[in-house]
């Protein structure tokens, strides 16, 4: 699987962040659907450069783009009741490859909070029902 | 409301022909009688125009007849049901005329 | 075309015919026939042509890009736009699934005499069990093939010897012969029942479940055109039988029980049971599709792994999504909300949100990132443009017409 992973883009390659990265489907090293890119993180460096450092996944972050107040409220609900404790998960941009429609991420999503709800529901609810496989 | 009178009429005929089960006929006739009583009650609250009084009387008559058909159907009396159902078209025609008369005004 | 492919197309066409009807299509067609005889046949025809184009596009998008329509809308337009059609779709899905469950419950009431509310929970359990244990192919094919029993409406229409001259005239668009508010309300409801947003989401998800690729584009066109085309004959059969059995007696459709009379007319006692079985099977199939569609759109909106062909442990969030959807909608029937009124209301609401759902299609179907060389031609673009215009008009008039003529 590691050999399938796309190489980093060449220097000078243009990347349309909003069109081709934001809201795109993330797919991990094992070709597993790992959520959507809900946010992009950029840092302003001392030398004036704006550097894209990470992509984010988390419902509060997506909702904040519509309404910051509602997003904060969802994060608060998540902190109280959620499996991910309302946290938004950041993936360093160095691990990100844009392949046109999907965004490939160089990690195993199952080992990260990206699939925390999937794991929790599987172990605490689904497996307890007969016929779940 | 004339639609419910027509429905009850058709259902009663179909029940006597053995085309629809008793439970279905009972539900339809009950619903029809309910709608007729509701229509009569509503007209009773309206100003005492002759047309309104006539229509109220017809709806009340319809409600009673549907309830009677329902009762004989429960007793599985096909002949009585057919006899009572034969009187439904006349009531429906009167209601139709009263309704058209109101709409023309 | 190879024999295997021919069989696949045949299956696709048959399942489209068998699966065409649902509670909305039955209710609106029967209301149309009972109130206006054959005068609204042209609306069914227009709606079917729209559906053929939309379904072909949804299938083409999924086959070429391996992305569903829901995926593509979020990716192309962003969460800030997508959240609105998605929320609207949740509301409509909740109501429509309730109405479809109601359809199955009414069918069981007709067969057993036991009031429909008592059937709500057993029916919900049956739907859930089928989704839990079944695969996509099994669910789609078995229920839709059983749904071929609805051809009884076509047979019934023929047996009643329709006045073919009047039927032909019914295909020519005309104004309301009487009660204009009611006429246009039914017209909008028929369109809302036919051009259902769930079709776009469900069909594209189904194409991905079935592993369609570029080699399947011809099959997609055939299934959409032939399948939906013949499927609409069944809905026209409902309209025509209502026109010939109910309209002459002045019977309007206020309850599903009245629609049963449309098949009693041509077939007597057999017709009553044929209607109950037809209603039950088509609504059960629609329940499956509607419940799964809720799972699809939530999963695709948020990027979860999904798939009815996966075992529940392999797609826990997806299975919980459709489970909650079934549970919530069942409550509508448990409390005894009239299924027919719920159906007609949700069709009108569907019409209101259609522009939000269909408009992005025009952009996506011309995006080479998704479709490569298979983007829309001028005809498809023209038709989508017309459909979008139509949906805007419908959205504006649906609620006022519901109030005036519903």
Quick rundown:
The complex is a heterotrimer of chains A (133), B (105) and C (406). Chain A has 133 residues and is α+β, with helices and mostly antiparallel strands.
Outline the structure in words.
The complex is a heterotrimer of chains A (133), B (105) and C (406). Chain A is of the alpha+beta class and 133 residues long. Chain A has helices at 17-21, 59-64, 68-81, 116-124; strands at residues 25-27, 33-36, 39-44, 50-57, 89-92, 96-98, 103-105. Chain A is built from 4 helices and 7 strands, in the order H-E-E-E-E-H-H-E-E-E-H. The longest helix of chain A is centred in the middle third of the chain and has 14 residues, at 68-81. Chain A is globular and about 55 Å long. Chain B has one domain. Chain B is 85% helix and 0% strand. Chain B has helices at 2-16, 22-45, 50-74, 78-85, 88-104. Chain B starts with a helix and ends with a helix. Chain C is mainly α. Helices cover 79% and strands 0% of the residues of chain C. The mean pLDDT of chain C is 91. At the A-C interface, strand 2, helix 2 and helix 4 of A face helix 4, helix 5 and helix 15 of C.
Strand composition percent of chain C:
under 5%
In whole angstroms, the N-to-C terminal distance of chain C is 48 Å
Please identify the oligomeric state: heterotrimer
Q: What number is the mean pLDDT of chain C?
A: 91
Helix content of chain C: over 70%
CATH architectural label of chain C: Up-down Bundle
CATH superfamily of chain C: Amino acid/polyamine transporter I
The Cα radius of gyration of chain C reads 20 Å
Total domains of chain C, how many?
Answer: 1
- Could you give the distance between the termini of chain B? 19 Å
Low-pLDDT residue spans of chain C: none
**Tally of helical segments of chain B:** 5
Helical percent range of chain B?
over 70%
Order of helices and strands of chain C: HHHHHHHHHHHHHHHHHH
- The assigned structural class of chain C equals mainly alpha
Question: Which pair of chains has the greatest number of interface residues, and how are they split between the two chains?
Answer: A-C, 31 and 28 residues
CATH topology of chain C: Amino acid/polyamine transporter I
Strand content of chain B: under 5%
